Amino acid sequence: MPIEPPVILELAALGLAGGFLAGLLGIGGGMILVPFTTAILTGRGVAPGLAVKMAIATSMATIVFTSISSVRAHHKRGAVRWDIIKRLAPGIVLGAMVASLGVFALLKGAALYFVFGGFVTFSAMQMYLDKKPAASRQLPGTAGLLGAGGVIGFLSGLVGAGGGFASVPFMTWCNVAIHNAVATSAGLGFPIALANVAGYIMAGLKLTDLPPHSLGYVWLPALLVLASCSVLMAPLGAKVAHALPVKKLKRAFAAVLVALAAYMLYKGVQAL
């Protein structure tokens, strides 16, 4: 079934918005892409439980491309903490593979709605309250960052996001400046996305009820449109991020997450 022009336009607008937010907030765009892609898929007759899984997988595949565009823009401004990325990445890849290859395929679609909504709400509240970390708190050692990376990768694999909803609050809690945390989160999006997408594809290869032009759980037509548009906007989002004061950036982060968490919790109730 070909994608109708109105659906292409919807996906293009979604990709532009997701790319901008990826650069602005370091969230990979997944928090925007998953709810709306789920709605588009259900509108095309895909069962709600399968639709949310495909939306999560397709969103994550988009982040492979968005993160590259976003992190390049942040790197030019010297904001990316590559030392943190190197220490978090191994745990992230391990956690992501566990989530996408195992737990993701076993969970029912309704459960994923609640997982998505719950963790996003928690992250949003942490950012909105803007609690100041203890001045003496620093990033943990190698073992601690390995464990933190595992948790971030695992949660990202369940909700189809680049990890910013967990990694940005974690880094700011450890006294990493918000602009550095956002930029570093953008860099973490690439290993998170790559590991998860591999898992989503392998986990979904044997399914027979997928819509046409799907590779495992990834819906390729949507991926093409979303990725093409999102990479155009990520650098602009990164530019705006460096022009905003810290408090406004945190509040913007929280406002986006709260709205989308509420929507996904509502959809979870409907799917029961």
Please name the defining characteristics of this protein.
272 residues; two-stranded antiparallel sheet; globular
Q: What's the alpha carbon Rg, rounded to whole Å? A: 17 Å
Total number of domains: 1
N-to-C SSE string, H for helix and E for strand: HHHHHHHHEEHH
Helix and strand composition category:
mainly alpha
Question: Strand share of the residues?
Answer: under 5%
- On the 0 to 100 scale, the average pLDDT is 81
Number of helical regions: 10
Measure the end-to-end span.
28 Å
Side by side, the strands of the main sheet go 1-2
User: What's the β-strand tally?
Assistant: 2
**So what's the oligomer here?**
single chain
Structural features, described:
With 272 residues, this protein is mainly alpha-helical. It has one domain (5-271). Helices cover 78% and strands 1% of the residues. It has helices at residues 5-25, 30-43, 48-76, 82-106, 109-129, 142-159, 164-173, 178-204, 220-241, 246-271, and strands at residues 214-215, 218-219. The model has no long low-confidence stretch (mean pLDDT 81).
